[in-house]
Amino acid sequence: MNLSHLRYFVKLAELQHYAQAARDLYITQPSLTHAIKALEAELGVPLFQRQGRGVRLTRFGSEFNECVMRGLQEIDRGVELAREYNDGMTGSINVGAIYSVQGDFLPSLIKAYRAAFGAGVKINMFQGFSLPLIDGLERDDYDVVFAAKTPNKPDLCFEHAVSHELVAFMAKGHPLAGRTSLSLDELHGHIVCTYRTGTPIGEEVDAILEEYDLPAVREYEDEITMGGMVASDPSLCGLATLSIGLKSFSGISIVPLRDVPRDFHRIYMVYKRDKFRSRAVESFLEFAADFVPPPGAVPSTGFCG
């Protein structure tokens, strides 16, 4: 069976028009017609049937198309692997990530990956919030993203990458500033602000607030915006994950919470389960899955209660 004929078949199945498919393939229409007829003769069944000025797949043609596309993907992957082994690790990786891992965990991961595989692979970084990043991954804008887990995504694989703890923080003139630790019950009577409802981290914090019957202003998208408001208003007490963004404020006091697990907010490496991936992307996923951040790479209050 001619490999070129299979590629012609897939293109015609996509466009369902001989003239358009021939033009995209840079061949003549008679050559395309001959290739399809040769395939049908070899298989002994019709693959297309006429529909107006175009064609559409027969029932068998539709099933055959799915098999051929999977087969061509594997062939293309094998060819790319052979070239990469011959030329060394090259290519590019599109990585999307939430802000909170871009100042600590992710730089450590990329530095370690380059030390292991060299600098031949170009890593393109993109920043966003978890839900838009997941949407972009599904559209193939990214090869992998680092984001919070979202439900009802059976075609995506979520592998735990790193966790951030939930902390209280306030301006240094606040009555709770300087405490070595706090319980959530001790926040009653203070104006608490945190993430907006509707985001993955917002939903996680909401559950804690409801458990402790703790009212809060829930309107912030990220730690930097929240940190700026808290630093400028000594009446506020913020609840946020401890990230590089929060630790950049010198005018606030960060206090660990005794009754919240240290791994409160889990961040995942997310990628498509069955997508064709280059050797560069495969090597990155495998390396990242086993990566352990060095000491100090992930923010910590140092509290181990």
From TrEMBL:
Q: Record's SUPFAM superfamilies?
A: Periplasmic binding protein-like II, Winged helix' DNA-binding domain
Reply yes or no: does the keyword Transcription regulation apply: yes
Give the HTH lysR-type domain ranges. Answer: 1-58
**One Pfam family here:** HTH_1
- GO CC annotation terms, alphabetical: protein-DNA complex
UniProt keyword terms in alphabetical order = DNA-binding, Transcription, Transcription regulation
Can the keyword Transcription be found in this entry's annotation?
A: yes
Q: What InterPro entries does the database record attribute to this sequence?
A: LysR_HTH_N, LysR_subst-bd, WH-like_DNA-bd_sf, WH_DNA-bd_sf
Q: Any idea which GO molecular function terms this record carries?
A: DNA binding; DNA-binding transcription factor activity
Superkingdom of origin organism: Bacteria
Q: Which family does it belong to?
A: Belongs to the LysR transcriptional regulatory family.
Q: What is this protein called?
A: LysR family transcriptional regulator
